[in-house]
Write a structure and sequence with these properties.
Elements lengths: L15 H5 L6 H15 L5 H4 L10 H23 L11 H8 L6 H21 L8 E4 L2 E4 H23 L1
Antiparallel strand pairs: 1-2
Helix pairs in contact: 2-6, 2-7, 4-5, 4-6, 4-7
């Protein structure tokens, strides 16, 4: 049931763009492939270039990757929270403040790609361990009702959003 595309009533409109980026029937394939696709897209980049803003007023590649990692952790925690039947609403987070805090000790490009792969391995283990009957469980996070299924698709779609942006900027 997690592999089925979530309906529009399973998440807030803000997340629709992320979910659209994952092809029908391809949730697990996207989750499995993305870490190596990030590595391939950034294979020619060195740490100096990865630390520079991608454009005026924008994040660096390292900051963007740290954001992808942080967001995946948040989405996976929400997924776990709702899958386990918790009903307390969860807060949102300020992505720009989190990136600023993470930037105080910027990792190397290789280190943040390793972290992305490790976090993704944990997310995959979580998603593949869930029984089908939890896919429709839902809760409120960041003021939006969302299902466990939608959160799994949001993990893949958010990472795809940033991967597609990298490919556009860096070829």
């Amino acid at each position: 049931m997690l592999a089925m595309r979530p309906g529009a009533d399973e998440y807030g409109a803000y997340y629709a763009g992320y979910i659209r980026r994952v092809p029908d029937g391809a949730l697990l394939a996207r989750l499995q492939a993305q870490p190596s696709e990030y590595r391939a897209a950034l294979s020619a980049m060195d740490d100096g270039a990865a630390a520079l803003p991608m454009a005026a007023g924008k994040w660096s590649v390292v900051e963007m990757l740290a954001h992808v990692v942080d967001t995946e952790r948040v989405f996976a925690f929400r997924l776990l929270w709702f899958a386990r039947g918790e009903s307390s609403p969860l807060p949102g987070f300020d992505q720009d403040a989190w990136v600023r805090d993470a930037s105080r000790t910027p990792p190397t490009l290789s280190a943040v790609l390793d972290e992305l792969a490790a976090v993704r391995a944990a997310s995959l283990a979580l998603v593949t361990s869930l029984p089908d009957d939890v896919a429709d469980r839902s809760g409120v996070a960041n003021g939006q009702r969302m299902t466990v299924r939608a959160l799994a698709w949001m993990v893949a779609g958010h990472a795809q959003h940033h991967l597609d942006a990298l490919r556009t900027i860096h070829g």
